[in-house]
Design a protein that fits this description.
GO terms for molecular function: metal ion binding; peroxidase activity. This protein is mainly alpha-helical. It contains twelve helices and five strands. It folds into two domains: 179 residues, no CATH class; 156 residues, Orthogonal Bundle (Chloroperoxidase), CATH 1.10.489.10. A three-stranded antiparallel sheet has the order 2-4-5, with no helix packed on it. It has a two-stranded antiparallel sheet with strand order 1-3. The two termini are 36 Å apart.
């Protein structure tokens, strides 16, 4: 059992040993005190992060390989859905929910099953790892929070899974409730019914770009009207619109060659979102793909990045947030505020691995024209 900070001050040796024994090799170090990090880093198995995998050797459409065993349905205390906002394109389609894959491995399933382009997969993978992973062991706990991550050491440390609110997950999801209402990870039948309704009304029974724009606007307005803590600033400002592209981009069979007009039918949507399964005889997209149409969805109903201010219907723009007019601010704020805030003064192997992982993260947007930042120096 991990002792709290008051016990640490009285029983340094005992607490150090108990922390090392109980702290999981895949738990996040983010937010721990410098003293706690020094104790842990010296005793954790240390890994040198390998280079990310390159582009797929074959990047055309092909039959998606099913897992050897079906995913287990979520039950109390076990969250098999790792990303509440884009559930089907998650690592657990290949990994057991309690496995802790090294980061290069965790980006492979999304690319192999959905043919996600290498840059997008790398950007998302390393963003999650930098805030939720253990950067010394180079492991990340996927899925929801489990007892295998050990006892919390207290905020602002993040020992949870990828569905930790406001890190990898955010408000106004298409099929998951806002965190304010107490459950941001479970499939929400009411919201999925709305997904189906909008697909019928605006897409003739298919979820397509037109439906995506209408439903995205509706979900934002619903959160503004019901969630006093609704936050629609970066990075959620970007991921919400990206999430809206996934169903017609990644979940439509790759043998449908006209991807511009492709739409997701409701039978397969039910399998993906409710049942967390690929349809039988499903083929991945015919070419490496990113969030196609993301700007079109935003321009249909433009809104400034912002948040509710303690009450519903108090949405206030935040001029300091990144938006589609300043994408590089997303990268800058993530590095200088989020990562730097979690790791203000890293040393040794932790500093080395932060530098390497930040480099891998930047490589995912290397062509976006952003200036690479080195908050911890260079190796």
């Amino acid at each position: 059992m991990i002792l709290n900070n008051s016990f640490l001050s009285l029983f340094a040796l005992v607490s150090t040993l108990s922390t090392v024994l109980a702290f999981p090799s895949y738990g996040s170090l983010a937010g721990l005190s410098e003293r706690e990090i020094d104790h842990l880093v010296a005793r954790l198995p240390q890994a040198l992060p390998p280079n990310p995998p390159g582009p797929l050797k074959f990047n055309g459409t092909k039959l998606v390989q099913r897992p050897r065993a079906p995913l287990e349905a979520s039950s109390q205390g076990r969250h098999s859905r790792t990303c509440p906002d884009s559930t089907p394109s998650r690592p657990t389609d290949t990994f057991p929910e309690t496995e802790s894959p090294p980061q290069p491995r965790s980006s492979k399933p999304s690319r192999r099953a959905s043919n996600m382009d290498s840059g997008t997969a790398r950007f998302v993978t390393y963003a999650a790892h930098l805030v939720d992973g253990n950067l010394v062991t180079d492991l990340l706990s996927i899925g929801g929070k489990t007892r295998k991550t050990g006892q919390d050491t207290g905020p602002p440390a993040i020992i949870g899974g990828l569905n930790t609110h406001a890190v990898f997950e955010g408000d106004a999801s298409m099929t998951r409730g806002d965190d304010f209402f107490g459950d941001n990870h479970s499939f929400n039948q009411t919201l999925f019914d709305q997904f189906v309704d909008y697909s019928n009304r605006f897409g003739g029974g298919f979820y397509n770009l037109t439906v995506a724009a209408e439903l995205r606007h509706q979900r934002i307005q619903e959160s503004i009207a019901t969630n006093p803590k609704f936050d629609f600033t970066s990075p959620r400002f970007f991921t919400a619109y990206a999430e809206s592209t996934f169903p017609y981009t990644f979940f439509v069979d790759g043998r449908i060659t006209n991807r511009t007009t492709a739409g997701l039918d409701m039978t397969n949507a039910t399998l993906f979102f409710r049942d967390s399964k690929f349809p039988a005889d499903f083929w991945r997209p015919p070419a490496p793909t990113g969030p196609a149409g993301i700007i079109d969805i935003f321009l249909a109903y433009p809104i400034a990045a912002g948040r509710n201010v303690g009450e519903v219907n108090t949405y206030t723009p935040d001029p300091t947030s990144a938006d589609f007019n300043n994408f590089c601010l997303l990268y800058t704020n993530f590095v200088n505020q989020t990562v730097k805030g979690l790791y203000p003064n890293p040393k040794g192997v932790l500093r080395r691995n932060l530098i390497l992982n930040l480099g891998f993260f930047y490589d995912g947007i290397d062509g976006a024209g952003c200036t690479e930042l080195f908050p911890y120096g260079q190796l």
